[in-house]
Amino acid sequence: MRHHPLPDHDTLPDEKNRELEQAFSLLLPIRRQRLRRCERLQRQAEQVLRETECQAAEAESQLDAARQHYQQLRESFAGRHQSGLQKQERLVGGLTREREASEAVNGQRTQLQQCRTEQMTQQQQVQHAQQQTQARLRDVEKLEYLMAHSEALR
Q1: Taking the domains of the chain in order of start, what are their residue ranges?
Q2: What is the rounded CA–CA span in Å between residue 76 and residue 47?
Q3: What predicted TM-score, i.e. pTM, was given to this entire model?
Protein backbone atom coordinates (compact mmCIF):
# COMPACT_ATOMS: atom_id res chain seq x y z
CA MET A 1 0.00 0.00 0.00
CA ARG A 2 1.35 3.34 -1.02
CA HIS A 3 1.22 6.41 1.09
CA HIS A 4 0.90 9.71 -0.69
CA PRO A 5 2.14 12.79 0.93
CA LEU A 6 -0.99 14.79 1.70
CA PRO A 7 -1.19 18.21 3.16
CA ASP A 8 -2.60 18.58 6.60
CA HIS A 9 -6.23 17.37 6.51
CA ASP A 10 -7.46 20.34 8.51
CA THR A 11 -6.06 22.95 6.14
CA LEU A 12 -7.43 21.30 2.99
CA PRO A 13 -11.12 21.90 3.78
CA ASP A 14 -10.38 25.48 4.87
CA GLU A 15 -8.57 26.16 1.63
CA LYS A 16 -11.39 24.58 -0.39
CA ASN A 17 -13.96 26.60 1.54
CA ARG A 18 -12.05 29.81 0.87
CA GLU A 19 -11.90 28.98 -2.84
CA LEU A 20 -15.60 28.17 -2.84
CA GLU A 21 -16.45 31.41 -1.04
CA GLN A 22 -14.29 33.33 -3.50
CA ALA A 23 -16.10 31.70 -6.43
CA PHE A 24 -19.47 32.52 -4.85
CA SER A 25 -18.44 36.12 -4.20
CA LEU A 26 -17.48 36.45 -7.87
CA LEU A 27 -20.56 34.73 -9.28
CA LEU A 28 -23.30 36.29 -7.15
CA PRO A 29 -22.87 39.91 -8.36
CA ILE A 30 -22.76 38.70 -11.96
CA ARG A 31 -25.91 36.64 -11.54
CA ARG A 32 -27.70 39.53 -9.81
CA GLN A 33 -26.67 41.91 -12.58
CA ARG A 34 -28.05 39.50 -15.18
CA LEU A 35 -31.29 39.26 -13.21
CA ARG A 36 -31.62 43.06 -13.01
CA ARG A 37 -30.96 43.35 -16.75
CA CYS A 38 -33.63 40.74 -17.52
CA GLU A 39 -36.10 42.48 -15.21
CA ARG A 40 -35.42 45.79 -16.96
CA LEU A 41 -35.89 44.22 -20.39
CA GLN A 42 -39.12 42.61 -19.20
CA ARG A 43 -40.46 45.97 -17.95
CA GLN A 44 -39.55 47.58 -21.27
CA ALA A 45 -41.27 44.81 -23.24
CA GLU A 46 -44.37 45.15 -21.05
CA GLN A 47 -44.41 48.92 -21.64
CA VAL A 48 -44.19 48.43 -25.41
CA LEU A 49 -47.01 45.87 -25.17
CA ARG A 50 -49.21 48.39 -23.32
CA GLU A 51 -48.46 50.95 -26.02
CA THR A 52 -49.36 48.52 -28.81
CA GLU A 53 -52.58 47.64 -26.99
CA CYS A 54 -53.47 51.36 -26.87
CA GLN A 55 -52.63 51.72 -30.57
CA ALA A 56 -54.84 48.73 -31.42
CA ALA A 57 -57.72 50.17 -29.38
CA GLU A 58 -57.31 53.53 -31.14
CA ALA A 59 -57.18 51.84 -34.55
CA GLU A 60 -60.33 49.92 -33.70
CA SER A 61 -62.21 53.07 -32.70
CA GLN A 62 -61.02 54.80 -35.88
CA LEU A 63 -62.25 51.83 -37.92
CA ASP A 64 -65.65 52.05 -36.22
CA ALA A 65 -65.83 55.77 -36.97
CA ALA A 66 -64.85 55.21 -40.61
CA ARG A 67 -67.49 52.47 -40.95
CA GLN A 68 -70.17 54.73 -39.49
CA HIS A 69 -69.18 57.56 -41.81
CA TYR A 70 -69.25 55.22 -44.81
CA GLN A 71 -72.66 53.85 -43.82
CA GLN A 72 -74.05 57.38 -43.43
CA LEU A 73 -72.73 58.36 -46.85
CA ARG A 74 -74.31 55.30 -48.45
CA GLU A 75 -77.66 55.91 -46.80
CA SER A 76 -77.71 59.61 -47.65
CA PHE A 77 -76.61 58.90 -51.23
CA ALA A 78 -79.35 56.32 -51.69
CA GLY A 79 -81.96 58.66 -50.19
CA ARG A 80 -80.98 61.65 -52.31
CA HIS A 81 -80.52 59.87 -55.60
CA GLN A 82 -83.42 57.41 -55.61
CA SER A 83 -85.91 60.06 -56.59
CA GLY A 84 -84.99 59.96 -60.24
CA LEU A 85 -83.18 62.38 -62.42
CA GLN A 86 -80.00 63.90 -61.04
CA LYS A 87 -77.19 65.82 -62.54
CA GLN A 88 -74.33 63.60 -63.50
CA GLU A 89 -71.90 65.79 -61.54
CA ARG A 90 -73.85 65.24 -58.32
CA LEU A 91 -73.96 61.50 -58.89
CA VAL A 92 -70.25 61.32 -59.66
CA GLY A 93 -69.44 63.48 -56.63
CA GLY A 94 -71.56 61.30 -54.36
CA LEU A 95 -70.01 58.12 -55.73
CA THR A 96 -66.53 59.59 -55.32
CA ARG A 97 -67.19 60.44 -51.66
CA GLU A 98 -68.59 56.96 -51.09
CA ARG A 99 -65.56 55.33 -52.73
CA GLU A 100 -63.18 57.47 -50.65
CA ALA A 101 -65.03 56.51 -47.48
CA SER A 102 -64.84 52.83 -48.49
CA GLU A 103 -61.10 53.16 -49.07
CA ALA A 104 -60.75 54.82 -45.67
CA VAL A 105 -62.53 51.86 -44.06
CA ASN A 106 -60.21 49.44 -45.85
CA GLY A 107 -57.16 51.47 -44.79
CA GLN A 108 -58.32 51.48 -41.16
CA ARG A 109 -58.96 47.74 -41.34
CA THR A 110 -55.41 47.20 -42.61
CA GLN A 111 -53.99 49.42 -39.89
CA LEU A 112 -55.93 47.54 -37.22
CA GLN A 113 -54.62 44.22 -38.53
CA GLN A 114 -51.05 45.56 -38.40
CA CYS A 115 -51.60 46.73 -34.82
CA ARG A 116 -52.92 43.33 -33.80
CA THR A 117 -49.98 41.58 -35.46
CA GLU A 118 -47.57 43.89 -33.62
CA GLN A 119 -49.46 43.23 -30.40
CA MET A 120 -49.10 39.45 -30.81
CA THR A 121 -45.39 39.83 -31.56
CA GLN A 122 -44.94 41.99 -28.49
CA GLN A 123 -46.85 39.50 -26.32
CA GLN A 124 -44.40 36.82 -27.44
CA GLN A 125 -41.49 39.09 -26.55
CA VAL A 126 -42.97 39.72 -23.10
CA GLN A 127 -43.36 35.97 -22.54
CA HIS A 128 -39.76 35.39 -23.59
CA ALA A 129 -38.57 38.19 -21.28
CA GLN A 130 -40.57 36.68 -18.40
CA GLN A 131 -39.00 33.27 -19.03
CA GLN A 132 -35.52 34.80 -19.07
CA THR A 133 -36.21 36.70 -15.86
CA GLN A 134 -37.44 33.53 -14.15
CA ALA A 135 -34.35 31.62 -15.30
CA ARG A 136 -32.00 34.34 -13.98
CA LEU A 137 -33.94 34.45 -10.70
CA ARG A 138 -33.53 30.68 -10.34
CA ASP A 139 -29.79 31.09 -11.00
CA VAL A 140 -29.49 33.65 -8.19
CA GLU A 141 -31.61 31.55 -5.83
CA LYS A 142 -29.53 28.44 -6.52
CA LEU A 143 -26.31 30.29 -5.85
CA GLU A 144 -27.68 31.80 -2.63
CA TYR A 145 -28.84 28.33 -1.57
CA LEU A 146 -25.39 26.88 -2.24
CA MET A 147 -23.77 29.72 -0.30
CA ALA A 148 -26.07 29.21 2.67
CA HIS A 149 -25.54 25.47 2.74
CA SER A 150 -21.79 25.65 2.25
CA GLU A 151 -21.61 27.90 5.31
CA ALA A 152 -23.77 25.45 7.26
CA LEU A 153 -21.40 22.58 6.51
CA ARG A 154 -18.50 24.25 8.29
Answers
A1: 51-81+88-154
A2: 44
A3: 0.72
